[in-house]
Amino acid sequence: MRVFSSLAGYDQAKGAFRAWLSAIARNVARKHWRRRATVNTFDPELADAMFAIPAEASHSPEQREEMSAVADCVSRLDEQLGELIRLRYVRGMTTRGIAAEAGMPESTVRSRLGEALDCIERCLQGKGIVQ
């Protein structure tokens, strides 16, 4: 609904439609996460299971290979970077929440997450998963 109501404001000169659409989706998701209750429902066993590579028959061999490669690349990160990735993508924490839990400024969390994602991307490039 947000896309349709904002469509008149899209300006192709400012960027690609896909980027504009992604920005809207990201902002809607951020609002949702800010509004949700902050009840700590973290279950370490569930997080480990989510982070583990599922061996479901529904996944193609290519998908299983990609998931395995991502898990391997994350496991190669130093301990702090790996923990930040888990807090963000397994626990779904916001930058502010990660900063509070890790005891570091939000700007540091953002830069360290960027560093971790760059390391993962280089690792996946080395494995031939991404170009």
Summarize the structure in short:
By secondary structure, the chain is mainly alpha-helical. It has helices spanning 2-6, 17-35, 44-51, 61-75, 79-89, 95-102, 106-126. It is globular, with a radius of gyration of 17 Å.
Write a concise keyword list for the protein shown above.
Arc Repressor Mutant, subunit A, 66% helix, mainly alpha, 131 residues, 2 domains, single chain
- Per the CATH scheme, the topology name of the largest domain is Arc Repressor Mutant, subunit A
Residue windows where pLDDT falls under 50 for at least 5 positions: none
* Percentage of residues assigned to helices: 55-70%
Number-wise, the strands total: 0
Name the average pLDDT.
Answer: 79
Structural features, described:
Helices cover about 65% and strands about 0% of the residues. By secondary structure, the chain is mainly alpha-helical. It has two domains: about 1-35; about 45-125, Orthogonal Bundle (Arc Repressor Mutant, subunit A), CATH 1.10.10. The longest helix is centred in the C-terminal third of the chain and has 21 residues, at about 105-125.
